[in-house]
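Email to the structure team, subject: Putative hydrophobic protein (TIGR00271 family) model.

Hi all, the expression group asked for a predicted structure before they design truncation constructs. Nothing fancy, just the tokens so they can compare against earlier work. One-line instruction: predict Putative hydrophobic protein (TIGR00271 family), return tokens.
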Amino acid sequence: MLHVRVVCPADRTDEVLAYLRGTTGTAHLTLARGASIAPAGDLLGADVAREAVDDVLAALCDRGIDRDGGITVEPLETVLSDAADRAEEAVPGLGSDAVVWDELVGRTGEESQASASFLALLTIACLLAAIGVVTNSPVTVVGAMVVGPEFGPLAALAVGLVGRRTDLTGRALRALGLGFPLALVVTAGAAVLAEAAGLVSLSPLESADQVDFIYQVGPFSLIVALLAGAAGMLAMTSAKSAALVGVFISVTTVPAAGYAAVAATLSDWPRCLSSLAQLAVNLVGIVAAAAAVLLLRTRTYRRRGLGRRLSEG
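Reply from the structure team: attached below.
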């Protein structure tokens, strides 16, 4: 279940209270009149079954609570209550399969920012991938896959495309457009400096046969990207974040960028271009599959007010 806390203008409290009382899937309804100072109003709370949260949020937004008051949604890890059990049983479906769109938009919006931590993690991941290429170590390449934070902007791009949120798509494109070129430049520079310092010896990439899969583009490159994008978006929309680790390991976005940087320093342009093509195939495939999953979920779940609220900037 999720806890929905509402800061409500006093003139709408009775209406909101009546709605929450009559809504299937709600439990533990509370009210503290005059408890909110800024904005001024009453404070309401309700524990809501995950399957019903979208309808509740849509109804609250239809009443202007998001504009004149405030709505906060928090996950509840453990709930010991017969009332909560009855509320969950009264709503069709499973909570683990329900999509809370506002939560998804907020989460992907936060993870799509070109923050210092995002740029640092992406650069570190590319450096790890380059080390894996130079040392012919698939294990190091897998480590780079896990570290890479690129699925956040890719998921945000899919959500933005489906919801027609230009602000979200723009933010995701900026993060990717800034992050990958920066990581490539830093990785290429680090490779040159490491060789000059005698730490590594950059040899022709033909000897790195254990990591050839990074730059070899084929039908399975797209298939894996599509499956990874679908699995990643399913994990995000069903609150099964542990599955995202498997998504990171399955795709070769960051390793392809690291391989391209090393190949460029060696003037091995065929492998460099092939790695960049692998990167592009993976990025496009992930976004396409993630968007398709969102479209299917949009049609599967009844969603009052989805189009209006997703289209708001």
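Residues 68 and 148 are 39 Å apart (CA to CA). The longest strand covers residues 26-36. Ping us if the truncation boundaries need rechecking.
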